[in-house]
Amino acid sequence: MHSPFNLAKKYLRYYLHASNSNGHGVHSPFVFEFIQKVKNKKPADDFTSIEMVREKLLADKTLIDVEDFGAGSTIIKTNKRMVSKMASSSLKKRKYSLLLFNLVKFYKAENILELGTSFGITTAYLARANPLAKIITIEGAPTIACIARQNFELLPVNNIEILTGDFNEKLPVALEKMPIVDVAFIDGNHRKEPTLEYFSILLNHSTSSTVLIFDDIHWSAEMEAVWEEIKTHKAVT
């Protein structure tokens, strides 16, 4: 796994070579539209209730047993974990949650799949983006899935179905319920072979406008190798 120092170097290299953030100089019409309409969009929606749940999780000192099916945590090395510490290391920041919200809303995604529910904050943002959408999210750890369900009831968001268990077992179940995926957010496991397998499976349930989002591509050298393979795949544009 990459150290914070190596991640900082990679980010600096990316920042220095990235295109202008307002989209000027970007030749791809899709990327230009994405920057203007999704990345730089400031939604008028109110996310106070979701952010209150986030703050509650960040203050929760409860210890829970966590069964980890993926590559584990770079920060927490025990199966007995405090909710607040897990929340601080695993929850996506508000700006990334807003990015997911904007993406689903702009592209009017109706069938959304998430691999890695965590405590359900990003799931809630996805659900709010299109209340008529069908969202299936998969979480490996039963104790975390239980907390996510409680959060969905608290908010409330009513268009989410959560499946609990190993991705390899639950992904086929999810895709039986959702044969075509408009947006998939892959945020779990963080190992090369399983991630490439998820990519391969999802390609068979995609259209020309499907968006597949892979998180933590700089998690490790093998995840960076995964990203290089995905970028160069003939189906990816």
Describe the structure.
It is a single chain. Helix content is 48%, strand content 13%. The chain is built from ten helices and seven strands. It has helices spanning 4-17, 29-39, 48-58, 83-90, 94-106, 121-129, 142-154, 167-177, 192-203, 221-231, and strands spanning 63-65, 80-82, 111-115, 134-139, 160-164, 183-186, 211-214. The strands form two sheets. Strands 5-4-3-6-7 form a five-stranded parallel β-sheet, with helices on both faces. A two-stranded antiparallel sheet has the order 1-2. The protein starts with a helix and ends in a 6-residue tail after the last helix.
The H/E string reads HHHEEHHEHEHEHEHEH
Sum up the overall morphology in one term: globular
Low-confidence stretches: 71-77
Order of adjacent strands in the largest pleated sheet: 5-4-3-6-7
**How many DSSP E strands?**
7
- Secondary-structure-based class equals alpha/beta
Strand content: 5-15%
List keywords for this structure.
single chain; 237 residues; alpha/beta; five-stranded parallel β-sheet; two-stranded antiparallel ribbon; 7 strands
Q: What is the element layout, followed by pairings?
A:
Elements lengths: L3 H14 L11 H11 L8 H11 L4 E3 L14 E3 H8 L3 H13 L4 E5 L5 H9 L4 E6 L2 H13 L5 E5 L2 H11 L5 E4 L5 H12 L7 E4 L6 H11 L6
What would a concise description of this structure say?
With 237 residues, the chain is of the alpha/beta class.
